TrEMBL record:
It holds the Pfam family ECH_1. It comes from the Bacteria. PANTHER family: ENOYL-COA HYDRATASE DOMAIN-CONTAINING PROTEIN 3, MITOCHONDRIAL, PTHR43602. InterPro entries: ClpP/crotonase-like_dom_sf (IPR029045), Enoyl-CoA_hydra/iso (IPR001753), Enoyl-CoA_hydra_C (IPR014748), Mitochondrial_ECH-domain (IPR052377). Gene3D superfamilies: 2-enoyl-CoA Hydratase, Chain A, domain 1, Lyase 2-enoyl-coa Hydratase, Chain A, domain 2. This is Enoyl-CoA hydratase domain-containing protein 3, mitochondrial. SUPFAM superfamilies: ClpP/crotonase.
Length: 269
């Protein structure tokens, strides 16, 4: 067994500020490729954040010039393409993407450079995404004989089927303007303005009731899985429950009284 290098830099950097936590993938020398260890480190951070009621918004970023280049192909080759290794790797990655979706807090992708394969999967799994004009996106697995099947799950739930198939079948690198047109990202800004744009969006969301954000995010993904009539029945029940929460009553009162609401972030009246 190799000894643990206590001097090694953390695989995920964490910074908390004003109810917003930023997680930065920290393998810049590997373009933040999702090694087994990086997936585990990010999963652990998200699991801890899910339990922290002081945090309202998560920003996911990448260190260096790339956001995330997908899976670590060198690690995959070194493992001899073993089925047991591949099963564990792709299961862990799938659980990570589902953790982002199920996280109580909204997650914003901050994309400054390339996002390819599972890196696109990360962007598509986040609730929102802001990209610099230097960002590039691709699902290039088809170019190396390994179709981007797991990235396809998140991608096909974000953009139209024909746009998703275009990305998956061609493997071509597309610019941020095309990603915006496809609906993969919310906003495109000059690279020099990326941090300011992400901070503005994150702080704007973080200023809302945390309980309302959590309830709303969960309801959004749940209703999307249901037939229309069931979705309305479910959403109706969510609205009734939401109305009984103190923050909703405070917010309505503040709106009527023309004042700024004072959130308690979920306590019942």
């Amino acid at each position: 067994m190799n000894p643990v290098d206590s001097t090694a830099a953390p695989l995920v950097l964490r910074c908390n500020a004003n109810h917003v936590v930023t997680l930065t993938l920290n393998r810049p020398q590997a373009r933040n490729a999702l090694s087994t260890e990086l997936i585990a480190a990010l999963q652990a951070e998200l699991d801890a954040i899910a339990m922290d009621t002081s945090l309202h918004v998560v920003v996911l970023a990448g260190a260096g010039s790339a956001f995330c280049a997908g899976h670590d192909l060198k690690e995959i080759r070194a493992a001899g393409y073993a089925p047991e290794y591949a099963e564990a790797l792709f299961e862990a990655c799938s659980q990570l993407m589902q953790r982002i979706v199920s996280l109580p807090q909204p997650v914003i992708a901050r994309v400054q450079g390339i996002a390819t394969a599972a890196g696109v999967q990360l962007v598509a799994s986040c609730d929102l995404a802001i990209a610099a004009d230097t960002a590039r996106f691709a699902t290039p697995g088809v170019n190396i004989g390994l179709f981007c099947s797991t990235p396809m799950v998140a991608l096909s739930r974000n953009i139209s089927p024909k746009h998703a198939m275009q990305m998956l079948l061609t493997g071509e690198l597309m610019d941020a303007a095309t990603a915006l047109r496809f609906g993969l990202i919310n906003t495109l800004v000059p690279a020099a303005e990326l941090d300011a744009a992400v901070d503005h969006l994150a702080n704007k969301i973080a200023s809302k009731s945390r309980h309302t954000l959590t309830m709303g995010k969960a309801a959004f993904y749940r209703q999307a899985e249901l037939p229309l009539a069931q979705a309305y029945d479910y959403a109706k029940d969510v609205m009734v429950t939401n109305l009984q929460i103190q923050d909703a009553q405070e917010g309505i009162g503040a709106f009527i009284d023309k004042r700024t609401p004072i959130w308690c972030h979920g306590a019942n009246p």
